Amino acid sequence: MAFLASDADGTVTLSLALNSEEGNQGTLVGYMHFQPLFRLFEEVIEMLCLTVLSRSALPQRHPSRIVGRAIVLMIFQILFASARAATFNVNSSADVPDVAPGDGQCETLVDSQVACTLRAAVQEANALPGADVILLQANTTYLLTRVGIEDASLFGSLDISDSVDIVGAGPASTIVDGNGAVTNDRVFLVSTCNNDGCNPDAIAVNISGIAIRHGRSAGSGGGLATALVVGDKPVVTMTNCLIEDNSSDSGGGGVYAGGPIALTRSVVIGNTAISGGGASFAANGVITDSTISGNTSAGNGGGITLVGYGSINRSTISGNHAHLEGGGIYSVTSADPAHHLYIVNSTVVGNGSDGAGGGLKNAAGGANLFNVTIAGNTANTDRSGSDGVGGGVANAANATLAFANSIIANNSALVSNSMFTLLNDCTGTIESLDYNIVRVATCTVVGDYSTDAVQFGPLGYNGGPTQTLPLLAGSGGIDAGNPAGCTDNLDAVLDIDQRGLPRPVGAACDLGAYEVQPDLIFENGFDG
After folding, report:
1. Spatial distance between the Cα atoms of 219 and 381, rounded to a whole number of angstroms
2. Domain ranges of the chain
3. How far, CA to CA in Å, does 306 sit from each of 84, 163, 290, 327, 328?
4. Reduced 3-state DSSP string for 182-242
5. pTM check: above 0.85
6. pLDDT tens per residue across span 248-264
7. What is the CA radius of gyration of the chain?
8. Which of 36, 172, 328, 369 is spaced 20 to 30 Å from 312 by Cα?
9. Residue 402 in contact with residue 374, Cβ under 8 Å?
């Protein structure tokens, strides 16, 4: 039989009475103190060392190591009970805070009924150690209504300060509406600091299957903002999310990341900001299988502003607009290749800027393109700027832009104070690493390249999670890649295109993000 007793100084005494079949009894007594979790193993060892065992009272067929093992298991159960990650099932769409944050219970009153709200769940997850899980309902909109700006998730945005997984039923079914017109705040803030101080430990926040809408921030990040965190590991991972119709009076209308972030199979659309209409990254930003579309910036970077480093993989940047430079992407990185922008198997199409770089403006550092399609972008869209050149790409004098197995074609620049439009694919100096097409080289291209005509089909869903520009039969770029294999920045062979379909199909890979596949209409007969 086990007994627990607590002294006034917080010491817990564990007594375990052991009875043998012969009626002999041994007593084990241990001591432990409630200490931070990092001393867990030290405390267990201390308890074992202080154990007093009347070995002579136990028969030999009850080895003391078996008894000791039982004690250790009991201790671990006691100590870990309060440290286990919790799972909170949100069952109310109301925006009401938790009654007692930190008690391990997501509970509040909604219409005189006990309920678990999203805000209450976030408060509990912040207060409890470990990576907690918050499960949201399907077919539900969580409308934020509490007016006020602070950082403990009591008013305004949902402020996250500890590791948590927030899981929805899909962005068409689970919606978190920031209601910024009322709250004047963003939807989510991820920071290791709040009103109670700062968490010195690294945290990981995973958000999946939700839509984030209608946040408004006087600072950065209308939909979601993360505070500066040192390191390369993503602090925030967003998967299968929709970030839509948010606004910021600074950087990142949809998303601002002061620390590492990863967006996967997500859509950032219809957001506005001063810089980085869709997203603004100040550290390592990784975009994979995602779409950045229809965002607007009053300054640079209609789709994305990168002031750090990052990569864009199998993604589409389309239909964004910047009132200054970089309609699709505005990049400021360092000279260190480890901190460049890398774009692989991706499409930059239909973006516009009033200044230079309708598709991409590389303002500093390095940008590197591998099997990228840059087409149909426009510079000087307001027909008023003297620097409105580089419809496809614009590279600053102090920057480097290199590309391989890529297409830069069919881009344009509008002529100021006139109705004329000029084909204009690039400005500045760019470096061709061979096997490229630059249709109208209005810039200095160092290295070999082709000016072959390229015919694209319309932007659309041709397989995979993102829209792509298909190469039409007879177009330049088909089977025109490196016959030794198209590779990425790590020299790894690209055996799929942006859609995830095999490449190469012919003698060599196709240039750009799209690999033409064989005609399979009749492969299985008319009934296939």
Report:
1. 28
2. 2-80, 85-166+178-206, 291-514
3. 38, 25, 16, 13, 11
4. HHCCCCEEECCEECCEECCCCCCEEEECCEEECCEECCCCCCEEECCCCCCCCCEEEECCE
5. no
6. 999 999 999 998 999 99
7. 29
8. 172
9. no
